[in-house]
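Subgroup meeting minutes
Present: P.N., E.W., G.H.
Scribe: E.W.

1. P.N. recapped why we're keeping a running log of single-chain structure predictions: easier to compare across weeks, and new members can see raw inputs and outputs side by side.
2. G.H. added today's entry (291 aa).
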Amino acid sequence: MNQALLTAGCAAAPGALRGGAPAAGAWAQIPLPAPGVFRIRPLAFEATASYLQRLAGAYRLTLPQLLDSAGITVHGHGTPPAAELDLSPTAARRVAAVARVRPHALARALPGLLQDGTTDARPATAYWSPVERRQQAVRACTTCVRHHSRGTADTAWIHRPRHQLVCRRHQQATPDPRLTSTLRTGTAPELTTAHHRHQRLQRHPRSAHAWQAAHAITTRWYDHQQHLTDHWHRRLHQLARTNAHMDRAGNASAVLLARDLVIYPETVTLARTLATLPHPHQAPASITPSP
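Output recorded in log:
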């Protein structure tokens, strides 16, 4: 694969690169060029399979076609977020070449992309592996995805860190991997306020432990003491009014799907309080007796 093949590919299948539907079998005879025409940037914390799907979509290819054109052998089957693609170092370098992204930048953005620094000629392989629901990626902000995909995609899956629950710029969030669409959060502006407060909390050395404890506490309150939290009911109803799809996500109820989002402001407040408590191993200040 080289620049000459890139030019040939664009000329032979203009519809595929200008918005038209490719003719049946057109790409079967045209290897995917590399370096690619498009530089498709990964989202921060994006699932590897999600990124590869977006890269394939930019060329109007399916994911298997993209990997085959890059000389990567795929084992197994799957789709995100229930499954993830594990790439060998050789396969990761080939993907980086096609995407026109430096390998270290790609590895930094994709948490599932393991780079061991080797440069040997081991086979370029990709393995599908199942992902437990608690570890599954969630839907990314659709507007951010379009911006990173040159308008060719609006779906991506990310392993969202705890302090980035809400996209403050576009007011979207996906608190549960079972949600197939993001939730609009504009009707609950306190969520954006909580996001800003959470960013400040991240600078505290005990923020991770404090967040884990606070989240466990507020989750239990939400699950077992809802009669004491009328404001959570109001926030849930605010979200439900502008996100009708919350009631159409399989067997899960909107109460569970939106839980992390509904309790978010209170969880941040509690975490900030816990983070500033005296350390349990900190000795009390000595008291000097008066003469």
